[in-house]
Amino acid sequence: MEGTGLTTEDTEEHWKGNSLADRRQLEFFLLRYVPDAVKDEFVNIGVVMVEPGANGAGFADVRFTRDWRRVRCLDPQADVEMLEALEREIRGQLGEVKDRATLLRRLEDSFSNVIQLSPTKGCLAEDPAVEIETMASMYLEAAKVAGVHKLGGRQRILRKMQEAFEQAGVVKFLNPFPVTPYTKPGDPFKFDFGYRLGNEIKLFHAVSLKASVDAAVMLAARYPTIAVGILKSKDGVTPFLTAVVDDGLNAGEEEVGFALGMMKDAEIRVAAAGEMAGIAEEARRELRV
Question: Which of 7, 59, 146, 150 has a CA 20 to 30 Å removed from the CA of 269?
Answer without folding.
Answer: 150
